[in-house]
């Protein structure tokens, strides 16, 4: 089953990891923790406490490693829409601060107007 698992965040294959996933196991590509609610078959944002397991204790941080005994990895946890949304948000932040192309200075060598606020 481990060859069917993919990181919930980046979609990288988790075939190299052994099951059951340990509490501190990380994605080999993006290094997020994997024993998290977002990676579990019981995770459902549309229900109370975002968990379909009634007996599970509530976990506040759904993307942080936890000790939940009900954890079961979900092969369909990766949703590419989240990665696309993250990329759009980063692009919007870059455009807001004048760093859409990753450059800190304008083409003429002057600093961005936002930089002047901190001088």
Question: In a nutshell, what does this entry contain?
Answer:
This protein is mostly helical and 119 residues long. The chain has 2 helices and no strands.
Write the layout of secondary structure elements.
Elements: H1 80-96, H2 113-116
Structural write-up:
With 119 residues, this protein is mostly helical. The chain has helices at residues 80-96, 113-116. It has a domain at 1-78.
Overall 3D geometry? elongated
Strand content: under 5%
- Low-confidence spans: pLDDT under 50, at least 5 residues? 102-106
Span from first to last CA? 55 Å
Overall mean pLDDT stands at 84
Largest sheet: none
Q: Say what oligomer this is.
A: single chain
Structural class: mainly alpha
Work out the number of β strands.
Answer: 0
Number of helical regions: 2
| Amount of helix | 10-25%
Radius of gyration: 19 Å
The string of secondary-structure elements, in order, is: HH
List its traits:
single chain, 119 residues, mainly alpha
């Amino acid at each position: 089953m481990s060859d069917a698992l993919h990181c919930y965040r980046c979609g990288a294959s988790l075939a190299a990891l052994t099951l059951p996933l340990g509490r501190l196991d990380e994605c080999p590509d993006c290094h997020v923790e994997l024993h998290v609610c977002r990676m579990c078959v019981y995770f459902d944002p549309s229900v109370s406490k975002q968990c379909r397991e009634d007996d599970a204790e509530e976990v506040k941080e759904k993307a942080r490693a936890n000790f939940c005994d009900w954890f079961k990895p979900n092969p369909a946890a990766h949703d590419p829409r989240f990665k696309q949304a993250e990329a759009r948000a980063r692009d919007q932040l870059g455009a807001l601060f004048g760093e859409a192309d990753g450059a800190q200075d304008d083409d003429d060598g002057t600093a961005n107007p936002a930089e002047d606020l901190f001088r």
